[in-house]
Amino acid sequence: MKTIPLDAVQTVLAGIIRQNAEQSESRVDVLAAKQPFVRAYLLAVDEVIGKESRGRLLMTGTMIWDVMAARQPDLRQVTELELRQAHERNQQWIKEILQGATEADQLSRIRTAWDGYNQVPLLGLVYAALQAHQEESETPTPGNAETELMYLKTVIDCLDQ
Question: Helix crossing, 56-71 with 120-136: angle to 10°?
Answer without folding.
Answer: 160
